[in-house]
Design goal:
The protein is mostly helical. It has a single domain (27-126), classed as Winged helix-like DNA-binding domain superfamily/Winged helix DNA-binding domain (Arc Repressor Mutant, subunit A). The protein has five helices and three strands. It has a three-stranded antiparallel sheet with strand order 1-3-2. A hairpin with a 7-residue loop joins strand 2 and strand 3. The protein is elongated and about 60 Å long.
Length: 133
């Protein structure tokens, strides 16, 4: 069992002792940017794409807050699509700055993957666990 002090010292001072054991943070930000590289889209379409991975973080509120923040930061731009049936929809597309941001995310994800692989190797060696896939 961990205590808040011990956890704070080793987890960047967040003080969230053991609350999210085994959970990996959502990758909604890089996934949204990658999705927009593949094709500009409106929010509902992006929700469907994120939902394909059965991601619990793909809730509409989070998605639209993230898109608004991306737009404020210059990572995406949007325009109104008034063609077709139904009401106008805001269509999002990635900017050059957003593409640079996505590349930086990929570098950080690779580093995280390497650290996770080292951890799992050490863990499996210590507990003499066969790799499970």
């Amino acid at each position: 069992m961990c205590d808040g002090q011990h956890h704070s010292e080793h987890a960047g001072g967040e003080g969230r002792c053991c609350r999210h054991e085994g959970r990996v943070r959502s990758f909604i930000q890089p996934r949204l940017l990658l999705s927009l590289v593949q094709k500009p889209a409106h929010g509902y379409e992006l929700m469907e794409r994120l939902g394909e991975d059965d991601d619990p973080a793909a809730d509409p509120g989070l998605l639209y807050r993230t898109l608004r923040q991306f737009e404020e930061d210059g990572l995406v731009r949007s325009s109104w699509d008034t063609e077709g049936h139904g009401p106008a929809r805001r269509v999002y597309e990635i900017t050059d700055e957003g593409l640079d941001h996505l590349h930086a995310w990929a570098v950080n994800i690779r580093r995280t993957r390497e650290r996770l692989e080292r951890f799992l190797t050490e863990y499996e060696t210590h507990f003499q666990i066969e790799e499970r896939r």
